[in-house]
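Subject: sequence -> structure tokens, single chain

Hey, anyone have a minute? Need the predicted structure for the following. Not urgent.
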Amino acid sequence: MTKSGNARKFVHAGGTGSNTLKSITAAALMLAVAFFARPYFVGGLDIEINQASAAAENSAAAPPEPPAPPVVGHVVIKADLAIGREYIGRVEPIQSVLLKPRISGQIETVHFKEGSIVKEGDLLFTLDSAQHQATVALHRADLAKAQANMAKAVKYNDRLKAADKRSVSASDLDIAASEALQNKAAVDQAKAALKLAQIDLDFTKIRAPITGRIGRAEATKGNYVTPGGGLATIVQTDPIRVSYSIPDRDYMAQIEAFQSSEGPVYDISLLLSDGTSYKSGGERDFEDNTIDTMTGTITLRRRFENDGGTLIPGSMVRVSAKPVKNHIAPVLPQEALMSDARGDFVYVIGDGNIADRRDVELGAEIGATREVISGLEAGEKVVLSGLHNVQPGSPVRPSYPSSDASAASPADLARESGYDLRAVVSADDGGSGEGTD
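Reply:
Had a minute. Here:
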């Protein structure tokens, strides 16, 4: 019993010693590995520390990238530059007549109502005709006498010519022929005198030479008038004419249309003094053949039907004229434009919101808007404001308050340009297409 117990104790002691020996051996191996690997770990730690230190130094030395500057962008649109403009027009009668007596005489009767419409041929004034009737009767009697003398002279001349040549001298024949011719001339003279007397008699009745509205009678019944004095004025009111002057540059812009004798140049509407629009646009009449050197304008005239008498001669109207021929081109607000020694340019916003310089060729100036002849196309984006912050080739942060240019109303465009520019949507955008020159 004692031996076997001692044996178990011995075996147990032997197991514990084996574990202890294994722990000592593992610790020794770890110390050896640490000793031999120390240079590697220390060097790697130093490298990492040095790299982190260098990165910190570099970060402290280089400032951070500045943020892209904010700008306001604008989408280039196409517009119809054949815009309407307003001019001041004056209503003019096509015909105007100042009635004057052709002979002297006393007015017997005034046959019209002042301010009324008279028709061509209407009797307006009658002058005292008694003296002229007597003159006509006198010249008629002179004509009858001259005709009788001529008949006698012709018969005598014929009788002499039919007689025997031996019984009539040549001198008598010559005298008879001469008297016949003189009497014929006296008849012609009497006829002319009678015609003149009849003309003077006819002039005692003064008739309307045109159809129109007659004004006040400058002389009434009982007044003695002479050929130098005026009696009344008649103005034609239907049709009537409106004249207006346009600058020479506007005329030159439509020179081909003006040089064509057929077809309209402008679509016209009239605004009357009370603010109402006239019922029709009239038709092209004619243009002056010279430009006024004092004003640099040329006068255009248009004919209107005026059966209601709305257009009064001498009155002023506003003429709104839009060219019939379209002129479609890209347009740009002038605030987006810059200029230097190389010429005019804009900053175009490309892919990645990178702003680059783009040279442009400019055309007509329309209010606050400028026509772009070349360099830009509709749909491209440009910097509108914030230009002082832009560097070529650098990014920007654009915002587009009115990015949908096609949806801008004519009133919005007018506020931008000062004129009513009509935006044109291209077929690629689903619009109805664009006009052409």
